Each structure stands twice: as C-alpha cells, then as structure tokens.
Amino acid sequence: MESQSGKGDPSKSPVSAGGKGDPSKSPASDGGKGNPSKSPMSDGGKGGSSMTAKPQRLPIRRPPEHATKGRRIMVLTNHFKVSLTRIDQIFYHYDVTLKYEDCKQALREGVCRKVMKRLYETYASELAYKVFAYDGKNGLFTIGPLPFNNNVFDVVLCDTSSGKTGTSRSPGGDGSPGPSDKKRMKGAVYAKTFKVEIASTSAARIPMSAIAQEAIRVLDIILRQHSARQGCLLVRQSFFRSEFGSIDLGSGVIGCRGFHSSFRPTQNGLSLNFDLSTTMVVRPGPVIDFLLFNQNIKDRKRIDWGKAKRALNNLRIKTTHRKAEFKIVGLSEKTCYEQKFSRKQGEGNGTVEVTVYDYYMDRWSIKLDNSADLPCLNVGKPDRPTYLPLELCHLLPLQRYKKSLSTLQRSKLVEGSRQKPLDRMLTLSRALRDNNYDTEPMLRECGISISRDPMKVEGRVLQAPQLSVAHGRELYTPNGRWNFNNDRFIRPTKVTTWGVVNFSARCNVSDLIRCLMESARKKGIQIDNCGAIIEEGGDMKRERPAKRVEAMFKQIQDISNQKPAFLLCLLPEKNCDIYGPWKRECLAEHGIFTQCLVPPANIKDQYLTNVLLKINAKLGGLNSQLKSEINKGIPLVSTISTIIFGMDVSHGSPGRSDVPSVAAVVSSLEWPNISKYRASVCTQAPRLETIDNLFKQVGDDDQGLIKPSLLEFYKSSRGKKPEQIIIFRDGVGESQFDDVLNTELADIIEACKFLDDEWLPKFTVIVAQKNHHTRFFPHNDNERNPNGTTRPTHYQVLHDEIGFSPDELQELVHSLSYVYQRSTTAISVVAPIYYAHLAAAQVAKFTRLDDMSETSSSHATQAAPALVPELPRLHDKVASSMFFC
Questions:
Q1: pTM of the prediction?
Q2: Is the pLDDT of residue 462 over 80?
Q3: Which of the chain's termini has less CB crowding within 10 Å, N or C?
Q4: Using an 8 Å Cβ cutoff, are 258 and 398 in contact?
C-alpha cells in the first residue's frame, strides 16, 4: 500500500462537497444523517437542480505509518540498486522537428533515430561533441547546454532499402525503373535529405539532484536509446529481439521474448526495475505462408482475401528480388495475370498497358509460379498504386501483432511463459549483465552504476481469512485454496423451471444433466427435474449466430408458454460466436439467467463444482462468506454502513480506435456483507479511460451508473444509505490519478447529492495497478515462492476520509481477495475489480463491439466514430444480479 500525496498543501483538509463548515473537519463528519424527516433516496433527483460547478477533490495525505501485522520474511526483488556519484549534473531539454520534403505524415521512430544518429556523425563539432538522449519523436536531452539555442541542420541519409529511385515509379512493380533504365544497378544507393531543427524549450533545465519524475523520464529515454542502437523492437520501456527466444501461438502469431527496464524511485533510493516481458509479433517470412498460418489452412486457394487484407494492413515487407522495403496498404482487385497498369515505353514513346505477370517476365525474367492467380500487394499511394506479387514478398521480423488473442493462443502464451522463480531470476541477472548498461555514455557521464545483485526487502505474510459455509462449518484455506467436496454452499439457491439448449456440442446431454443435478444436491441447491432438452437442428450450424439464437428461442416458445427462469447452454467450442447473441437474448430481451459451458470429454466432480459456483451466485445465492463478515468483525466496514465499488473500463483490441470502450461499476449489496455485488455497464468513447457516465443528468433524472447502485444498496440493506464509500479503481496510471479524483470522484459525489442534497458520505479511493513489472522471489529454498512468476497487484491510496490504518486497509484488501464467488482460490486482485472486468467484457459481447468495423475500410482506425452505440439495457429480472459470474 502506498499513500498518494498528489498536489496541494498536505496540512489542509480536502475541499468538501458542499464547500462549507469547519475546515478542520471531514466533509462527511455528520455521518450522512441529513434531515431525519426526509428519505435519503426519495426525492427523485430534485436535489440536483441547484448544483454548481464540481468542487475539486484534493487528496488526503496522512502521517506516514507502517503496517505491522503478519509473519516477517526477506524476499528478493527484480530491482537492482542504482548508485549516483554525480548528482550535480543538469539535463537540458530541446525540441526536435524532423522534416522530409513535403511529407505531411509523421516519420517512423526507426527513421527518426537513423536521422539523429547520422546528425551526430556529421555535426559532432557543431554539437560541441555532446552525446544526447533522443526519445524517437521530438525530445532531445543533453548533459549541460548545447552551444546554441536554435539551429537547423541538413542531414543526408543514404538508403538502400526504400525502393526510392529518383525516377518515376512504375505502378506495376516495386518502384522499379522502366526498360530504358535496365543498366541501373539493383543495389544503388539513394540519398534523402532531412531538415532537423533543434530548439531549447522554456523548461529546459532538469536537475539530477532532485531525482524527480522528469529526471527519471530522461534516464528511461537513455535506456530506450541504448536498446534501439542494438536493433531491438521498442514497446514503451520494454525491448525485444528475435535472439531472446519466442513462443509460437498459432495463426501466424509469435510471442517474442524480451525485457523491461526502467528506473524507479523506492524507499531505498533509485533502482533499476528489470523484468521479463513478452510482446506479440506477426510471423516473419513469405507472405503466402503467413496467410496460411493466419487462417489455419493449407491450400492457398482457400484464402479469405477479406481477412487477408485486414491481417496484412500496414505490415512491412521486403522484396526478394531487390531487397527493397515497403508498407502494405491493400490488395489489388485482380490477380497478377489480370491486373494491368500503365508502363512507360521509353523517351517520348508514351505508355502501354501491361499485366503485373508480364512485367515481371519482361523486366526481371521472373516467372510467377505460386502467385500468378492471386491478388497482388499494393504498397503505393491511394491515387497511385504499386503492385507486388505475393511470392516475391517476405514479412519483416519484429512487427507487432495488435489484435486480441484467442483463448487457445492465450493458453499457449501462459504455458510457454511458465518458468520457475529462481530460473527467472537467473535469466534476469544474465540478461542485465549482457545488456551492458555500463558502456552507455550518458549513464557514465551521469555517474550512474547499476548493481548486478537483486535488492532484498522485508515482506510480511498475512494470515489467511477464515471462510464459512453451511451449518457454520469453516473451510480450510491452505495456500489460498479450498474445496467444497464435503461441504454445502452457505446460501444455496433454488432452480425450478429450467432447461438445456444444445448448440451442436458433442456430448451425452442426459448424462451431463444427471451428474450436474447430483452434484447440485450435495452442495445444497434445490434443483427440479430438467423441463426440456432442446437440440439445435443440423441445418442451422452454418447460419449466422444471431439467426441460430433466434431459432433456438422459437423452439423454446413452441415447447412451453412458460418462460424458463434458467437455461443451461451447451456450446461447441470456447469463444464461440453464439456466446454474445445468446447472452444478449437471455439477459437483455427475456430476463433469463443462463450458464454457458463447453462440455469436457471427461466430466469430473471439480468441473461440476466450478459450474455450480457460477450458477448459484447468478441466481442469488452465496457459496461462502468470510467469518469476519458474518461476525461483523471487519474494522470500520462492519460497524458503519459501507458500500464498495469496483470500477474498470474495457477497451477494444490494441490499435483499434474505432471500437467503443465499455465502462463497468460493480457495487456491494446487503451490508454488512461484502460478498455480494451487482453491476452497471455502459459504452463510452473509444480508448477513453476516465468513466464519463457515473453521473448523467437528463432532465429531472440521473441516468448515470452510480444511481442504481446506491438505490439497490439502500433496498438490500434495509433502508440504510451508505455513510462510507470505498472505491477500487482499476486500469489507470499515475498520470490519470487527478482524473480519478477530480472527475470520477466528483461525479460520484454529484450522484449522491442528486438523491439527497444533505447526504455527504466519507470516501476512500484506491487504485489497483497490475501493469507493472515488480516481482518478488524467495530469498532461500526454505521459503515458499511469494509470487515470482505472477503479477502482484500494487494498491495506491489516493484519498482516505474514512481513516483506515495501513493494517486495516491491508486486511480489507486481503479479505476481498477471498470473496470471489466463481472459484475456490484466492485471487490476485480484489473481487469488486475482477467483477467489473467480467461485467464489461461480457456485456461488450452483446453486440460484438470489437468486430463492429471489420467490414469498414482499412483506414477506419485513423478516426473514432462520431456516435458511440449504446448497449442494450439488462432486463429488470437480472439487472441487480451477479449475471457476470
């Protein structure tokens, strides 16, 4: 746990929601009682009519205090001590502008780095022989000032791989000259002249002595530059090279191994965080082979060219006959045999129409054997296509794959990345040594040296919370695991009118039902006999998913006029296209609870238990509860009415700026319980991380995500409104902490005031971060692995009006990792956040948002759509359930 101080005077109380009262008191110090004659949830939104501008919520910083609970142990980390001997150094920041002729598009980072490398080689004396750190875009940093404030340099870059010739480009080839230029050598060198402007910035001086965020950013830029010089693929602060190893994930995708390196401030001073990393790249080699792998086929005649166009868009290739590099912008409409273009005949002889096939036979004496009947790659411009035969093109290595992985690919990635903790630490130590940061000129000039030994830190092992099941029995939870083999759920549900639908899954349905019912009764679930088993007609397998779902519901209606309360849905495979439309039909249109599963070949008791955990939670039951929850022993939470929020935003695949993001807020119910939740979900602008629909006033009503959560809490908690609100926020980085406080928290306060303008609950805001690279390893063989091969969650406390001590907050977080109803293991992040992630992902599949623009043009990712489609609302019968389990 860390307290995030943020900005402002730490001695002052944060600005209250109302902005009045004694500044030494908490803004919610009245306990939220308000006017006793007025129901806190009854004014229908009238309190919101007089609202003014949102108050800014400053973070509360409490005196430093260390937690003490738990068994103390020593652990190793993947942080390496950094020694500084010249903290008097000052970085100077300059803006860099690179221009090439009339090119209006931004130059690629690789090109920019080549230009800047050449600039230093050419103008070292003009730069006073000062080495610099360049960020690949428009930032340049030196130690000490350059001998000028502003200067412009002409940089000539010789290029043998671009295909530029200086003559008119043949639209049918690869920038190749016409027949009159046949004597030109294939390996000719072509020069490009860039103009590079270097200008000092207004905030040019960055002192090393402060080791502030800006200074650390410069040091990280130096690390990136060091990796770029070694020919690595750079992804933020991680670097990758083919020699580091790879994992074949199938479908033309490879998991490329690499390393993350970044400087981090710690309580023990500056450290280098060094970790293993993996990024997805497309399989290099012949383009035709990639397409066969990508579509999982063996015959090139079966290639789906619509899918091929999307898969190849913006990838870079090298031609085998001229070794020239290009970027793919599309495919030709016709095959090499048929695709024609105008070719110059010679000086003053006009042009002639030729096919791509004939051009390569005539100009290059190449007979196209494997792609003559296939489309060509287009590597030209929209108004001036340039066609290349597929068999002459190879995909370059280290090109990122930015789409979502399938379930099978993810499992291969996890399996291929598995490594014993000590082996992982040895790999890191060896790679750090081989990376040889000691030779980096700017690090040497800064007086920076990096230890080869991992840092040791003290940790504490908290005692696992106790879980209770039926009849007051306690579950034994060694190593965060337990089972229900001999126990019943603490609050089993009833399954009355239900049926089974089978979308062509191969299994013995009757046997599955028998086993499921037998296991359900052992867990205490009262389950009636199955009302109907509906098999999909064989003629429907090839129809669209939505039509298959529609046909299935017609069969359900034909069998009975009574709508089932629950449907077990059997699917033929994971990630089946039917899943989204089926969930939408059940949850949004009909209000029917449903559980989807892919029946295994061998049905075991643990599998049935896992299915029943989800079914029981969805239908309103509880599988287990914390003993402290039942005994009202959770500090500050059990004694004062408290609602817990989990908030997350799910985005489309990386690189897809046309796919709406989905925001979800889950909230606890039935206080003083903290094991049961509901969810509110909505779409918002693509790639927007801040949730902008928490409070949304439309006329006299609030249609935001928070209002229904508060109303359901009020009803489920016997008329108690929450006096305390704990918010767990996932998915935001340090640069977005102010948005969480000043936008999201402010909107939640507005939603509370809208329901009762005298209601001022206390807030605690905690950000959970898993997108980091800190790992812990056992210090000796006698200690069990803490989490050297998993990603521990880092919790940052942004704001705490409730007043938790570090021990109390850590115990709460630990406990919330044991109330996840879907499994019999503790999870690595608090359950409310996990639920928010599940809810957003599941509802997004209602309309398959990630595929909404698949048929649009290849340039659709350049701009976001003007309108964000709204998700269908959940049916009232399921809206306040744990449908996402």
A1: 0.83
A2: yes
A3: N
A4: no
